[in-house]
Every structure is written in structure tokens, then in C-alpha cells.
Design a protein that fits this description.
Layout: E1 2-4, H1 5-11, H2 16-35, E2 38-39, E3 48-51, E4 56-59, E5 66-68, E6 77-79
Antiparallel strand pairs: 1-3, 2-5, 3-4, 5-6
């Protein structure tokens, strides 16, 4: 069963060990996304799901995601209309 990270934090069930584990997983997910040219612009605890059985994070809500532009201008972003 997946639970929002926000709910877990509010319940007080998140320990320091959980924070370390979740932080590492979140950084790996962002590294993968950024390596693929995807910028997640709505990162917050309510957009992170936790599987309570194996403590695996899932990053959700890619509504405000941007793809890095292929233009030569560095840092310019273009909006994503659909991710399939």
C-alpha cells in the first residue's frame, strides 16, 4: 500500500534512518530524471509515495514537469504537454 510521505511525516512514524533512506532514494530518482532531461517542478512530500512494505519511494505528479530544451541556449526550459 502506497502512502503519501506527507502523511507519514505528520504521523510521526518517520525516523532518522527513514529520512536517510528516503533522501537517498529521492536523490537517485531526481538524478535519473535530470539525466533524462526531465525537471520535476512540483517536488513536495505530498507528491512522494512510500510503499510501506518495502519502504520504496515513488515520485508522482509530473503535471508541472519541464524538459530541458534542445536549444543551444543553456538553462532554457520548455514545458512538457504529455509524458507517455
Amino acid at each position: 500500500m502506497d502512502v503519501e510521505l506527507r502523511s507519514l511525516i505528520a504521523s510521526g512514524q518517520v525516523t532518522v534512518s527513514h529520512c536517510r533512506l528516503f533522501s537517498c532514494q529521492l536523490l537517485l530518482a531526481l538524478r535519473f530524471a535530470h539525466g533524462s532531461g526531465i525537471i520535476h517542478c512540483g517536488l513536495k512530500p505530498s507528491n512522494v509515495l512510500v510503499n510501506c512494505q518495502d519502504l520504496v519511494l515513488k515520485l508522482t505528479d509530473f503535471q508541472f514537469t519541464h524538459l530541458q530544451s534542445q536549444d543551444p541556449e543553456p538553462g532554457k526550459l520548455s514545458p512538457v504537454t504529455a509524458l507517455i
